[in-house]
User: What shape does this take?
Amino acid sequence: MLVAEIFHSIQGEGELAGLPSVFVRTAGCNLRCAWCDTPYASWRPEGTAMPVEAVVAAVLRHPARHVVLTGGEPMIAPEIATLAASLRDLGRHLTIETAATVAPGGIACDLASLSPKLLNSAPDPRQHAAWRRKHEALRWQPAVVRAWLDAYACQLKFVVTQPGDVEEIEGMLAQLAREVPRHKVQLMPEGTTAAGLRQRTGWLAELCKQRGFRFAPRLQIELYGNRRGT
Assistant: This one.
């Protein structure tokens, strides 16, 4: 599989925020989010081809019990199921961070961190017309999200750019026809700098209070800024 990076850091997002974790970031993505903060793993994927055994060995060099498979989109990586099974067999707690466009297929996973994309994610059609069409056709797959929800412990994370996004989120949740607890739905401000995140923090926190959703800060930006290996 093509691996963009493997690193030991602090989980910055979601209900496990603050936990030391080893991140395996695969290269390659089937979406093209306009605000993507890891273009080296998505828009122009780069990395090192590694067999599963080498990835596992790299993970084991670090003391953290929690491992995060992320991307890009890890679910399109060749041998991702083999890697997940190997890590689970070694007693690691496994989070998979995915846009939920690919069905789980029984993959080993302790926490599925599902991040379906809103309309705000679409790339500029003037610059990326073909990718815009593909992105829009693929970004929201309610049947796939239901498959994850029915089989795993899950959290839903939505990247929010403006207050109106919350109505779109409510509509998507209704389409799922599942009882998703409000505290399992996390709203995360879009931004790649601490200053940019703070511009959206106030009104987004108020929306979370009104709707009962969980506000999700991006701790890694506060700790390290927007850079690789964090």
Q: What stands out?
A: The radius of gyration is 17 Å.
